[in-house]
């Protein structure tokens, strides 16, 4: 659980903005902080580098240069010091707040080309690993835009250079590099292309989870989690869409990585009860032998329905029914424990009951003000 910069700010990121986000993560003015709720990793997503400043031929120069680091000579990242004057100070600040800090490699902005010599490639992988460790990062996202795609090599080098520190690795290869039941040199792996702040994008990304959450022997498991990308909660059309998006990620054990602007108070207030809901977070974090899965998918003439299922350590089962109506785009989040509960329908609202440790009543209003 955590936050990453891309969905909120894109390339408009700096050390100053990252440290402000860290402050926002521990702000308890709403009664509880995001860190208290479990969001403890703050990740930098691209655009820390000085493009075209590294070795290679113009116009295809990358952003890695030769550097001696300890006993090693490696190709390390050329950091843009105007925007990130002191990476180590930034991660130290995160740690002082009880947070983890996340880095980013194999960048998409000014993506690099393959280097012509094998020793240069080796030095590039080593330099990346050394940078993660020496700057004090606790996690790293490895994207799919450059040629440095050997996740097993990255994991081995991180293990060798980090000593007794554990560096968690996100495989962001857009569903192209996936684990087996015996091979998974990363902590999380993307099942999808990049998510966007639309209902359709979120819904498509959710469906890429199906093959990784089979009823028997699912590939998504502790230490090797399937991931349909960062959350767009707060960036979608309505509260109902935000809530449904978050619920779907929780039921399927997706890593919960926020991507909203934490300084937009109106937006944060709107989704606060969603992203800090203890029952939803319990559903996401608890493991009882299965990550959660698609139960049924039915498609009548106007409405598509997806039912998702999540298991609990106490043996109970939670099912969420999601209806997708072509005109309204409503998720009808029907939460069920143990028995089937039918939603109560009216012309303009849908009242649903979540039964877990307590009962909550949630009322959804149709999008665009239309009635069902």
From TrEMBL:
Reaction(s) catalysed by this chain, per the record, are: Hydrolysis of terminal, non-reducing alpha-D-galactose residues in alpha-D-galactosides, including galactose oligosaccharides, galactomannans and galactolipids
Q: Name one GO biological process term.
A: carbohydrate metabolic process
Report the top EC class in one word.
hydrolase
Protein EC? 3.2.1.22
By sequence similarity, the record places it as follows: Belongs to the glycosyl hydrolase 27 family.
Which UniProt keywords are given for this protein, alphabetically ordered? Answer: Disulfide bond, Glycosidase, Hydrolase
Keyword Hydrolase appears in the UniProt entry: yes
Classification of source organism: Eukaryota, Sar, Stramenopiles, Ochrophyta, Pinguiophyceae
- Keyword Acetylation among UniProt keywords: no
Protein name per Swiss-Prot or TrEMBL: Alpha-galactosidase
Q: Which organism is it from?
A: Phaeomonas parva
Q: Which SUPFAM superfamilies match?
A: (Trans)glycosidases
Pfam families in alphabetical order: Melibiase_2
In alphabetical order, the GO MF annotations are: alpha-galactosidase activity
